[in-house]
Automatic annotation (TrEMBL):
It holds the Pfam family NMO. The keyword Chloroplast does not apply. Its cofactor is FMN. The lineage of its organism: Bacteria, Pseudomonadati, Pseudomonadota, Alphaproteobacteria, Rhodospirillales. Keywords: Detoxification, Flavoprotein, FMN, Monooxygenase, Oxidoreductase. It comes from the Bacteria. This is Propionate 3-nitronate monooxygenase. Belongs to the nitronate monooxygenase family. NMO class I subfamily. GO terms for molecular function: oxidoreductase activity. It comes from Ferrovibrio xuzhouensis. It catalyses: 3 propionate 3-nitronate + 3 O2 + H2O = 3 3-oxopropanoate + 2 nitrate + nitrite + H2O2 + 3 H(+). The keyword Transcription regulation does not apply.
Length: 354
């Protein structure tokens, strides 16, 4: 075990499967990474509390290795009727093109964090990580009372310091390269665009906590660089999206393997919150509509029907193709093989004569 964080986590390799809520959030992916010596972390933010429970139990049934569970902390949001009506209009053409019923207003926009969190306390996963804020003091205390390691996500030095003051055990330092939604909570995502190379060493220097580097780390060269910057581990997200166990729909897989993979951008078009994905027709069409798109998670819930139908129909132009800036290095293989190759590359990169 290369360092104190890996010893605390009980992992042989300083690599985490980054939490990725949605399609890739499958117990088989987490257990494959954990069984291969990394830390499989699952993004459970979109799961009902019962599915969170089933997921934790499925991981435990398939592996006795450590793993992590990640939740979205609740955000303040408004279901603005005017914006919802405008957004329905923006979705309508896509629904017609996909041959599905007109967009509706869902009766629920997000799962209950309180209920999801109660399941976490009940099931006691070895690691709890979270994004979009700072857990409340009683929540951190309850996790620590159960010896659950608490990881908070920071996209700026100020966020890392705030998380440290709140008592988390480790910081995921998430650079602007990262795929999907980023955790920014003190300033908007668009104003928190610090690259991983600049963010990681500053958070290492500014806090006394172990740091997990995330964002644009897809192969072993990235992991080696993260360790050189002072991180004790690297979280690889996009680099595992093509793993067999992720079982992504074919249109998403094809997009990750095409030329467009080098053109990722930030968009609010699919969810109402800025997230990084491969540029496609839907996000281009909504590029100037920012102010008319409802808040996350309202827009996210409203676009779910379009995205599900597009996945079935193989229509990448209507999918949220979340991917980080180094997505062009992602490989299609079993997750254990991806991890082994990452480790071999990291070792090779670290043994260099200068
Ligand atoms: C498809 C996808 C879904 C994600 N979902 C979550 C999530 O549920 N919780 C979270 O903390 N981060 C989430 N992220 C961010 C990742 O945990 C991680 O920080 C990011 O993938 C790192 O950048 P990379 O994609 O370049 O490896 C997601 C990223 C992707 C690509």
């Amino acid at each position: 075990m290369p360092n104190a964080l890996c010893r605390r986590l009980g992992i042989a390799h300083p690599v985490l499967l980054a939490p990725m809520a949605g399609e890739a959030s499958k117990p088989a992916l987490a257990t494959a990474v954990s069984n291969a010596g990394g830390l499989g972390t699952l993004g459970c933010g979109y799961m009902t509390p019962q599915v969170v429970r089933d997921t934790i139990r499925a991981i435990r049934a398939a592996s006795d290795k450590p793993f992590g569970i990640n939740l979205f902390l609740p955000l303040n949001w408004t279901a603005d009727p005017a914006k919802m009506a405008a957004y329905r209009g923006m979705l309508a053409a896509a629904h017609a093109d996909l041959g599905i019923a007109e967009p509706d207003i869902p009766n629920k926009f997000e799962e209950s964090f309180i209920e999801q969190f109660a399941v976490v306390l009940d099931e006691v996963p070895p690691v709890f990580s979270c994004t979009f804020g700072i857990p409340k003091p009683d929540e951190i205390a309850a996790l620590k009372a159960r010896n659950i390691l608490v990881v908070g996500t920071a996209t700026t030095v100020a966020e890392a310091k705030a998380l440290e003051a709140a008592g988390v055990d480790a910081i995921a330092a998430q650079g602007a390269e990262a795929g999907g939604h980023r955790g920014s909570f003190l300033a908007p995502v668009e104003q928190s665009m610090i690259g991983t190379m600049a963010l990681v060493p500053q958070i290492v220097s500014a806090t006394g906590l172990p740091v997990i580097a995330a964002g644009g780390i897809t192969d072993g060269r990235g992991v080696a660089a993260a360790l050189c910057l002072g991180a004790q581990a690297a979280a690889v997200g996009t680099g595992f999206l093509l793993a067999d166990e992720a079982g992504l729909n074919q249109a998403y897989r094809t997009a990750l393997q095409g030329e467009g993979v080098h053109d990722t951008t930030l968009t609010r078009a699919f969810s109402g919150r800025s997230a990084r994905g491969i540029r496609n027709a839907f996000l281009e069409k909504l590029a100037g509509s920012g102010d008319d798109i409802p808040d996350y998670p309202v827009a996210n819930a409203m676009s779910r029907g379009m995205r599900a139908a597009a996945a079935k129909a193989g229509r990448a132009e209507y999918l949220s193709l979340w991917a980080g800036q180094a997505a062009g290095l992602a490989r299609a293989a079993p997750a254990a093989e991806i991890l082994q190759r990452i480790m071999a590359e990291a070792r090779a990169a670290l043994v260099q004569d200068l």
